[in-house]
Amino acid sequence: MNSSPVALSELLSRATSDTSAAPDATAERIIDAAVAESAAVGLDRLRMEDVVRRSGLGRTTVYRRFPTRDELVRALATRETRRFLSAVSAGIDSVEAPSERVVEAFVAAVSFARKHPMMRRMAETAPGSVVDLAHAPDAELFAAGTAFITRQLHGANPGEPSREARWVADVFARLFLTYLALPPVDPDVRDDTELRAFAQAVLIPMAERVTPS
Questions:
Q1: pLDDT digits (tens, 9 = 90+) for 19-41
Q2: By residue range, what is the domain housing residue 175?
Q3: With b meaning 16 or more CB within 10 Å and e meaning fewer, what string describes 136-175?
Q4: Same domain for 67 and 111?
Q5: Mind listing the pLDDT tens digit for each residue in 35-82?
Q6: Are residues 102 and 14 in the same domain?
Q7: Is the dihedral of CA 52, 67, 12, 125 positive or negative?
Q8: Going by C-beta distance under 8 Å and a sequence separation of 6 or more, which residues neighbour residue 123?
Q9: What Rg, from alpha-carbon coordinates, does the chain have?
């Protein structure tokens, strides 16, 4: 029997605070199987026995690494969140101007989500669940994302970010969720070049308006 589901906000909170070592090769293989299985049936329907089958490993091996479903889901959330944050950080670090960092963060986030099998399934089969990330019980995750964008807009400037900066950050975060749940035809979210052109034309003016000089 599957154990009770863990709230997404709790999973990602643990993922961002977990300082444990990266999984070994066997654990990585099991997590890969869990990601593939979740992409096929949905995370809520993930079963340990199906992960065992998909991994090609023995049942004892899988359960030795992850004795319960919750432990496997936590490990999955930790690894995939780290990968997401790494992708976004790489985008941010590729430029210096705060407004450009917002653009590259947006492009990196949408690109990662577009290519990730679990997130793609979530957007295709349950778009409402993507939008729900901005509401309880996952509102703290959305708030953390908005706070991150606000810090990028404010940069290293003294004082607290302005109210307008928080407004813009909130718009950017909601735009990201909307682009996953209800992708537009123009720009084509499958094309990073088009995403970047959109972000430069639309997001940079908004960012520059609230970025301290």
A1: 555 679 999 999 999 999 999 99
A2: 94-210
A3: eebeebbeebbebbbebbbeeeeeebeeebbebbbebbbb
A4: no
A5: 999 999 988 899 999 999 999 999 999 999 999 999 999 899 888 888
A6: no
A7: positive
A8: 113, 130, 180, 181, 183
A9: 19
Does some domain include residue 178? yes
pLDDT at 17 > cutoff 90: no
Sheet strands (E) in the chain: none
pLDDT band at 175 (very low <50, low <70, confident <90, very high): very high
* CATH number of the domain bearing residue 53: 1.10.10
Residues 44 and 139 in one domain: no
DSSP state at residue 5: P
Query: The whole model's pTM is what?
Result: 0.76
- Same domain flag for 12 and 101: no
36 φ/ψ angles, rounded to the nearest 5 degrees: -65, -40
Are residues 108 and 186 located together in one domain of the fold?
yes
